[in-house]
Amino acid sequence: MADITESPEWSALAEHQAVLAGRHLRELFADDPGRVGRMTVTAGDLRLDYSKHRVTAETLRLLVALAERAGLRGRIEAMFSGEHINVSEDRAVLHTALRLPPGEALTVDGQDVSADVHAVLDRMAEFAGRVRAGEWTGFTGKSITTVVNIGIGGSDLGPAMAYEALHDYADAGISCRFVSNIDPADIVGKLADLDPERTLFVVASKTFGTLETLTNAKVARRWLVERLGDDKAVSRHFVAVSTNAERVAEFGIDTANMFGFWDWVGGRYSFDGAIGLALMIAIGGEAFREMLAGFREIDEHFRAAPFEANMPVLMGLLGVWYTDFFGAQTRAVLPYSQRLARFPAYLQQLTMESNGKSVRADGAPVVAQTGEIFWGEPGTNGQHAFYQLLHQGTRLVPADFIGFAEPFEEPAVDGTAMHDLLTANLLAQTSALAFGKTAEEIAAEGTPAAVVPHKVMPGNRPTSTILVRKLTPKTLGSLVALYEHVVFVEGTIWGIDSFDQWGVELGKVMAMDLAPALTSDEPPGETPDPSTAALVRAYRELRGR
Ligand code: F6P
């Protein structure tokens, strides 16, 4: 595999950056009146304005040439058609098959994966329908009012984020809670006020071997059995979502109450399949299918649109542009929607577990920087916390602003709808970040000379604005698919395997090795290093052991 940084396209971008770095967005806008029109793209229900980026038509031409050099078109086809592009695990990468329309066959490794997907979706919808209708009852015959999803990482963040985003669509009087952390505070707090007779646990784990999930599930099972007084209650109150039927059975959950998926779905790409069971119970099978249609719309766009008008391709290339040519370390994601409060956390796993790699797919070390650090908070809260650094700090932090035109609530204060105030803030921020305010403008307002430098707003800070009519199951699906494919584009340019996550394994093994040293009364045995050994001793002392 040739190193992309040695390509003429990479060098051309580096040379171009040296020129463009000295130019301000104010100039780029002044020089090009047609800029906004040309730098706005739509994909399904999503509208992206990327005109406030430090790019020109030439930059885009060069970035697209880089994508061609990296073979992006072929890689997209390889993913959609089920080639084993997850090379380190020798697996296909087919989360896009989770949202294929019924009847559209896709045969991979001799198996019609689309038929498998729809068989599971139909079973999920049937089960969710029974729970929602009160036909699936608990052990004492009462209907279910709370679903507790026990899972972590991809088996938590996706459904938890989507449930919060779509809770207005939860129309069956069933609420969801999500337990993930092995900190007992999580499960103890979440179970405290629950009625065991009306609680259903969804134990969600791709591998069914994850310490946090199995530990929390055991605690939940004990809680239930103690309160209902019978082991037999478990089968009415526990269902599983997993790829591993054997371990589900070992745990004591009837595999008739298990919803499966496959090793070609990465954990962080899985909530549009069986991992979304809790969400489906809350919002119903129909709304869940609308969400899948939103995913699919972006899949089709990604596969077919020319790169110049392809939203995930453009956003991915912009990520590479700032990461590798401007030295940006992070990307802020700023949803102007309280309902998307967990979206940045969800994106952190999606993007950083995927692209936080320092070797290429062929095992050679990468030369360029990879893996943007994603972070963020909903607007306007972030404005009163960290935006100061975005506006006047020394670091370049490209940011994605996400806004919606139609609110769920319409309170108005002093004649102005609150939602319009929210949106005004979004627009004001992107404008201030791009264009800033000069010393002359500030001095002209009568600001004392000594204060002027403190008030200068440099501007030239790049942002994307994604505008959507309303947050719905469908548009949420589209937003998630957009970022899934952004990750893919970046990973392809960097030549890495975006679908494994070996870096999380060592810590898991070491924690299991260390646990006995923390819990026993024996002198601590072998610990990995002197600092950790001292900390083990200190911890035991503080615990009185
Ligand atoms: O440790 C990381 C990870 O493997 C993630 O990739 C995954 O989403 C999470 O753990 C949970 O894994 P599982 O669904 O197998 O419990």
From TrEMBL:
Instruction: List localization entries.
Output: Cytoplasm
One matching Pfam family is: PGI
Q: Does the keyword Oxidoreductase apply?
A: no
An example of a GO molecular function for this protein is: isomerase activity
- Keywords of the record: Cytoplasm, Gluconeogenesis, Glycolysis, Isomerase
Enzyme category, top tier: isomerase
What does it catalyze? Answer: alpha-D-glucose 6-phosphate = beta-D-fructose 6-phosphate
Q: Which domain of life is it from?
A: Bacteria
Is Cytoplasm included in the keywords of this UniProt record? yes
What PROSITE patterns would the database entry show? Answer: P_GLUCOSE_ISOMERASE_1, P_GLUCOSE_ISOMERASE_2, P_GLUCOSE_ISOMERASE_3
Name the active site residues.
E353 (proton donor), H384, K508
Q: Which family does it belong to?
A: Belongs to the GPI family.
Its recorded name reads Glucose-6-phosphate isomerase
